[in-house]
């Protein structure tokens, strides 16, 4: 045999047809069909290893249960760590430039409120009483006309030796009979004692209150007997000057929303949250203008607006509602008073 001659193939070679009509699956644009990526189970992977055709199969490893559990645990740990991060400093409305920033935002966010802002004077938040004194004053003014509340508060301050001396120890040093002599009811005496005891035990303090975020502050203050949601909102706005508080339980603000948006009925809290969402993060200032709107229409009682060094519209009505709620709660807790305060 001539060595230059190549050996003949032992098997015939089938050539790829080029006639498209004879092979409809043939495509000139995609000469090779890409392999599909398939996720195989452990059984299928074993079969392909034992001798199955794995040329067109890509084995994808499936994470184990322990790995998935570890990743989930790490995500939960990270989220819990983020939840423990202290909130950033809250700039009160009494800080320089905050009112201007609030008015710019509200004008741009709500044209209806912009017209109201242009027609009314600029708001002011300039009360700087310590939190304990402001909360005590809040309790004393509940369900009272402004003049009667001022008279009782003045006598209470004299008993304590001046506003600078109003402290938890001073409140606890006064007996119930002494408080009744100056016009403080027995129920309000319970409220004052509960507030003072929470300060004494360290649950609350002026420092803690100032540093809390709005949600935590609402939760902690609501634990004090005699302080409901309306009282907390008023305290946050007019004592701490928090910028983003919407007092959804206040009748004045509800009437203001009804008037501003032309509603047939008084809005409920969810509707108020929805309508005033665009005011964030300055809903406190928006609420201030709603009070002024309602006051201008003659819907507020004269002189009821300065009970907490600010505008306290319809305080008597709300205070009565809150006191009735607190009384009902106290009646429910009466049988288990021996177990201690839930606060």
Automatic annotation (TrEMBL):
GO BP terms in the entry: base-excision repair, AP site formation; DNA alkylation repair
Gene3D superfamilies: 1.10.1670.40, Hypothetical protein, domain 2
Highest taxon listed in the record's lineage: Eukaryota
Region (Disordered), start-end ranges: 1-85
UniProt entry keywords in alphabetical sequence: DNA damage, DNA repair
Pfam family, one: HhH-GPD
Comp. bias regions, Polar residues: 11-28, 51-63
SUPFAM superfamilies: DNA-glycosylase (SSF48150)
Sequence ranges assigned to domain HhH-GPD in this UniProt record: 140-295
Molecular function GO labels: alkylated DNA binding; DNA-3-methyladenine glycosylase activity; DNA-7-methylguanine glycosylase activity
CDD domains per the UniProt record, alphabetical: ENDO3c (cd00056)
Gene Ontology CC annotation, any one: nucleus
Homology family: Belongs to the alkylbase DNA glycosidase AlkA family.
PANTHER family in the cross-refs: DNA-3-METHYLADENINE GLYCOSYLASE
Listed name of the protein: DNA glycosylase superfamily protein
Organism: Actinidia rufa
Phylogenetic lineage: Eukaryota, Viridiplantae, Streptophyta, Embryophyta, Tracheophyta
């Amino acid at each position: 045999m001539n060595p230059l001659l190549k050996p003949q193939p032992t098997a015939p070679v089938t050539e790829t047809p080029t006639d498209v009509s004879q092979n409809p699956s043939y495509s000139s644009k995609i000469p090779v069909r890409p392999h599909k990526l398939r996720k195989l189970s452990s059984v299928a992977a074993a079969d392909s290893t034992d001798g199955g055709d794995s040329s067109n199969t890509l084995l994808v490893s499936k994470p184990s249960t322990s790995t998935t559990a570890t990743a989930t645990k790490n995500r939960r740990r990270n989220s819990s760590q983020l939840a423990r991060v202290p909130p950033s400093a809250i700039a009160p409305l009494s800080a320089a430039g905050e009112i201007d920033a609030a008015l710019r935002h509200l004008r741009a966010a709500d044209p209806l409120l912009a017209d109201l802002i242009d027609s009314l004077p600029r708001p002011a938040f300039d009360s700087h009483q310590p939190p304990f004194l402001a909360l005590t004053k809040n309790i004393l003014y509940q369900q009272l006309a402004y003049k009667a509340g001022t008279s009782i508060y003045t006598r209470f301050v004299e008993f304590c030796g001046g506003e600078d001396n109003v402290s938890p120890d001073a409140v606890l040093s006064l007996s119930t009979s002494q408080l009744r002599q100056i016009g403080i009811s027995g129920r309000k005496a319970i409220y004052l004692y509960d507030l003072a005891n929470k300060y004494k035990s360290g649950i609350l303090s002026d420092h803690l209150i100032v540093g809390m975020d709005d949600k935590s502050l609402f939760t902690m203050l609501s634990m004090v007997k005699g302080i409901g949601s309306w009282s907390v909102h008023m305290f946050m706005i007019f004592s701490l000057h928090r910028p983003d508080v919407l007092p959804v339980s206040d009748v004045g603000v509800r009437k203001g929303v009804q008037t501003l948006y032309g509603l047939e009925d008084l809005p409920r809290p969810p509707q108020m949250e929805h309508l005033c969402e665009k005011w964030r993060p300055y809903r406190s200032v928006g609420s201030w203008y709603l009070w002024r709107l309602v006051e201008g229409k003659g819907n507020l009682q004269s002189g009821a607006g300065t009970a907490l060094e600010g505008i306290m519209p319809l305080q008597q009505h709300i205070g009565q509602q809150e006191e009735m709620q607190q009384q009902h709660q106290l009646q429910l807790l009466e049988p288990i008073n021996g177990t201690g305060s839930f606060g």
